[in-house]
Design brief:
109 residues, mainly alpha, 8 helices
Length: 109
Protein backbone atom coordinates (compact mmCIF):
# COMPACT_ATOMS: atom_id res chain seq x y z
CA UNK A 1 0.00 0.00 0.00
CA UNK A 2 2.91 2.36 0.64
CA UNK A 3 3.89 2.19 -3.03
CA UNK A 4 0.48 3.44 -4.15
CA UNK A 5 0.62 6.21 -1.54
CA UNK A 6 3.98 7.34 -2.93
CA UNK A 7 2.73 7.09 -6.51
CA UNK A 8 -0.38 9.17 -5.78
CA UNK A 9 1.69 11.65 -3.77
CA UNK A 10 4.16 12.04 -6.60
CA UNK A 11 1.27 12.62 -9.02
CA UNK A 12 -0.24 15.31 -6.79
CA UNK A 13 3.12 17.09 -6.54
CA UNK A 14 3.73 16.80 -10.30
CA UNK A 15 0.31 18.17 -11.18
CA UNK A 16 0.49 20.93 -8.57
CA UNK A 17 3.91 22.10 -9.74
CA UNK A 18 2.87 21.95 -13.40
CA UNK A 19 0.00 24.23 -12.44
CA UNK A 20 2.40 26.60 -10.65
CA UNK A 21 0.59 26.24 -7.33
CA UNK A 22 1.97 26.06 -3.82
CA UNK A 23 0.77 23.44 -1.39
CA UNK A 24 -1.15 26.20 0.41
CA UNK A 25 -2.89 27.30 -2.80
CA UNK A 26 -3.85 23.75 -3.67
CA UNK A 27 -5.07 23.10 -0.14
CA UNK A 28 -7.25 26.20 -0.22
CA UNK A 29 -8.68 25.39 -3.67
CA UNK A 30 -9.37 21.78 -2.64
CA UNK A 31 -10.71 22.77 0.78
CA UNK A 32 -8.13 20.61 2.53
CA UNK A 33 -5.49 21.36 5.12
CA UNK A 34 -1.96 22.25 3.96
CA UNK A 35 -0.69 19.47 6.22
CA UNK A 36 -2.93 17.01 4.38
CA UNK A 37 -1.47 18.02 1.00
CA UNK A 38 2.04 17.76 2.43
CA UNK A 39 1.44 14.28 3.83
CA UNK A 40 -0.25 13.09 0.65
CA UNK A 41 2.61 14.35 -1.50
CA UNK A 42 5.13 12.76 0.83
CA UNK A 43 3.33 9.43 0.65
CA UNK A 44 2.98 9.25 4.43
CA UNK A 45 -0.81 9.46 4.21
CA UNK A 46 -3.12 7.52 1.95
CA UNK A 47 -5.53 9.53 -0.16
CA UNK A 48 -9.26 9.02 0.04
CA UNK A 49 -11.42 9.09 -3.06
CA UNK A 50 -12.92 12.33 -1.75
CA UNK A 51 -9.54 14.03 -1.28
CA UNK A 52 -8.31 12.94 -4.73
CA UNK A 53 -11.56 14.21 -6.26
CA UNK A 54 -11.19 17.57 -4.48
CA UNK A 55 -7.57 17.88 -5.60
CA UNK A 56 -8.43 16.98 -9.19
CA UNK A 57 -11.23 19.54 -9.25
CA UNK A 58 -8.94 22.18 -7.75
CA UNK A 59 -6.48 21.47 -10.56
CA UNK A 60 -9.25 21.60 -13.16
CA UNK A 61 -8.93 17.99 -14.28
CA UNK A 62 -11.02 14.84 -14.04
CA UNK A 63 -10.19 11.70 -12.12
CA UNK A 64 -9.30 9.92 -15.34
CA UNK A 65 -6.56 12.46 -16.06
CA UNK A 66 -5.42 12.40 -12.45
CA UNK A 67 -4.84 8.66 -12.55
CA UNK A 68 -3.20 8.68 -15.99
CA UNK A 69 0.29 8.20 -14.58
CA UNK A 70 1.76 8.00 -18.07
CA UNK A 71 1.01 11.66 -18.86
CA UNK A 72 3.26 14.47 -17.74
CA UNK A 73 1.57 16.90 -15.36
CA UNK A 74 1.86 19.90 -17.68
CA UNK A 75 0.16 18.00 -20.50
CA UNK A 76 -2.95 17.53 -18.36
CA UNK A 77 -3.30 20.88 -16.62
CA UNK A 78 -5.33 23.62 -18.32
CA UNK A 79 -4.07 27.20 -18.39
CA UNK A 80 -4.81 29.51 -15.47
CA UNK A 81 -7.41 31.36 -17.52
CA UNK A 82 -9.23 28.15 -18.40
CA UNK A 83 -9.14 27.07 -14.76
CA UNK A 84 -10.67 30.40 -13.67
CA UNK A 85 -13.42 29.98 -16.27
CA UNK A 86 -14.03 26.41 -15.10
CA UNK A 87 -14.39 27.57 -11.49
CA UNK A 88 -16.91 30.21 -12.52
CA UNK A 89 -18.93 27.78 -14.61
CA UNK A 90 -19.00 24.83 -12.23
CA UNK A 91 -21.39 26.61 -9.87
CA UNK A 92 -23.95 27.56 -12.50
CA UNK A 93 -27.23 25.74 -13.00
CA UNK A 94 -27.54 23.48 -16.04
CA UNK A 95 -29.87 25.86 -17.92
CA UNK A 96 -27.33 28.68 -17.79
CA UNK A 97 -24.53 26.34 -18.81
CA UNK A 98 -26.48 25.35 -21.93
CA UNK A 99 -26.95 29.02 -22.89
CA UNK A 100 -23.26 29.76 -22.34
CA UNK A 101 -22.30 26.71 -24.40
CA UNK A 102 -24.46 27.91 -27.29
CA UNK A 103 -22.91 31.40 -27.13
CA UNK A 104 -19.37 30.02 -27.09
CA UNK A 105 -20.09 27.82 -30.10
CA UNK A 106 -21.41 30.83 -32.03
CA UNK A 107 -18.33 32.90 -31.15
CA UNK A 108 -15.89 30.12 -32.05
CA UNK A 109 -17.52 29.09 -35.34
Amino acid sequence: MKNINRLVGKRIRELRKARGMTQAELAEAAELEVETISRLEGGTRGATVDSVNRIAQALGIGLKEFFDFKKEGAAVIPSKKLLRIYRLLERLPEAKLRKIYKMVRIVLE
